[in-house]
Amino acid sequence: MDETMQSSNIVVGLDIGTTKVCVVVAERDEMGKLNILGHGRSDSEGLSRATVININKTVDAIKAAVADAERESSIRIKGVNVGISGAHVHCINSNSKISVNQSGIVNASDVKRFLEKAETNIRYLHIDHEIIHVIPQEFIVDDQEGVLDPIGMAGTTMRGSAYIVVGMKTKIRNIKQCVEKAGLEVNAMTFEPIASGLAVMKENEKKSGVVIIDIGGGTTEVAIYIDGAIRFSEVVKVAANDVTNDVKYGAKTLYEVAEDLKIKHGCAYTGGERKEDEEILIKGIEGRPQKSFMKSSLNLIIEARMMEIFELIREVINRSGYYDYLNAGAVITGGGCLIQGTDTLAAKVLGLDVRTGYPEGISGGIKESINSPIYATVMGLVAHSFENSDFEGTVIEILPGSRKQDGEQTGAVPPPVVQAGKTIVDRLKDWWEKL
What is the arithmetic mean of pLDDT over 398-409? Predict the structure, then answer.
């Protein structure tokens, strides 16, 4: 017997990447931590630089990843929070100023008008774009600066800035089409640098100033957080696939073999040290005899391209104007950061303290299966769904014979609609999605 229900504490994240599609089904426990119920992963061949180039291949990859997650979680997935990225996505800082209502006390309606005004101020610049997020950065009530949540404050005027994420309508539509053709509903769309940051960033880093660097297959995403809010982001069109292609041409082998060489034997930073070289045997193409490739040559190829990536990132950070505010340094994540020595090279090129970011805030379930930078974005998509204060849960179908259908409890309880201490970002998420 099928059982369809609205679950207030289960969400599904869908990360459609250039090289992989990842799906995670999670619920939130009574402590606010994430309990992983199931996950799926499949190879992706339908995207280039985070942009859909083949609808059918992308749909097939989504279906394969979703099927794995459904088998593991015993839940039929119906709705997802899907990530959106690519060079077509742009972020704009927009200023806004309004008069506070006649009572002289800022209320939710005032904040809504503030965000609407911020959106109106930039709309004419992007006729072929649509808004993905409108995120308040800072409020100034009369002369009181640095306000993150102005509701309840007394004042006559409220001004400040909002961070507006926009993307090309056609490219967003293609992503939605792929999801819908795979038999799913798009519950929400989230800019992936925001998701990655939410997954791997620690609260003190966010307050102190940090740059999140997500090295994916086709693109590298950079997001800068200062004083608790995102201030700048940009997508770099050089990433891990470019490293693999360099190895492929250097070793004169197949892409799949080059990827294996990169992961198993590669190093992104050698430090110029002379070590005893090592000969690596490579399988020949289509029955040809195997050949050898020197490890030193492999590492030189990898280091050159990875250095280029971090030099481009350094240029992005310098262009943002926030370099001197990155007191916490950088967090690198994504599958492209898994090459040995990547963190050391990043620190050398960027001149910042660097750590590798793994998904945070996971309490149990199949926790170890997603404990990798590869799953940073999809875990951030899950976390971002729970950040939505009006979120009512994903419509799911409990599969026959599952423990949930048999009445076994997971220990998680539905979160209240509004929790004490929620920031204005949480309470106004419903407006952002409508703007």
Answer: 52
What tokens does 186 get?
Answer: 């798009």
Indicate the helix (H) or strand (E) that contains 14: strand 10-16
Are 405 and 397 within 8 A, CB to CB?
A: no
Q: Write down the residue that tokens 């309004």 correspond to.
A: 98
What six digits make up the tokens of 34?
Answer: 């994430």
Separation of alpha carbons 299 and 425, rounded Å = 44
The domains found in the chain, sorted by start residue, are 1-88+168-201+360-435 (3.30.420.40), 90-167 (3.30.1490.110), 204-358 (3.30.420.40)
Number of helices (H) and strands (E) in the chain: give both, helices first.
Answer: 12, 22
The whole-angstrom separation of Cα 208 and Cα 224 is 11
Q: pLDDT digit string (tens) for 221-278?
A: 999 999 888 999 999 999 999 999 999 999 999 999 999 999 999 999 988 666 678 8
How far is CA 373 from each of CA 36, 213, 336, rounded to the nearest angstrom? 16, 11, 9
CA–CA dist 20, 57 (Å, integer): 12
| Structural contact between residues 218 and 337, judged by C-beta atoms closer than 8 angstroms | no
Burial class (CB in 10 A: 0-12, 13-18, 19+), 250: middle
**Dihedral of the CA atoms 73, 77, 80, 85 (nearest 10)?**
80
365 closest CA partner among 36, 73, 33: 36
Q: Is the pLDDT of residue 315 over 90?
A: yes
Which pLDDT band holds residue 14 (cuts at 50, 70, 90)?
A: very high
The pTM for the full model equals 0.84
Residue 85: helix, strand or coil by DSSP? coil
Tokens 């950065």 belong to residue: 137
3-state helix, strand, coil in the chain (%, to 5): 35, 30, 30
Best CA proximity match to 211, nearest among 369, 98, 367, 321:
321
Strands 330-333 and 354-356: parallel
H-only helix segments in 182-254 = 192-200, 203-208, 240-251
Going by the DSSP 8-state scheme, the letter that residue 164 receives in this structure is E
Beta bridge partners of 159: 97, 140
Cα–Cα distance, 206 to 334 (Å, whole number): 19
pLDDT of 140: 95
pLDDT, tens digit, 9 for 90 and up, residues 386-397: 876 445 555 556
Q: What is the pLDDT of residue 380?
A: 93
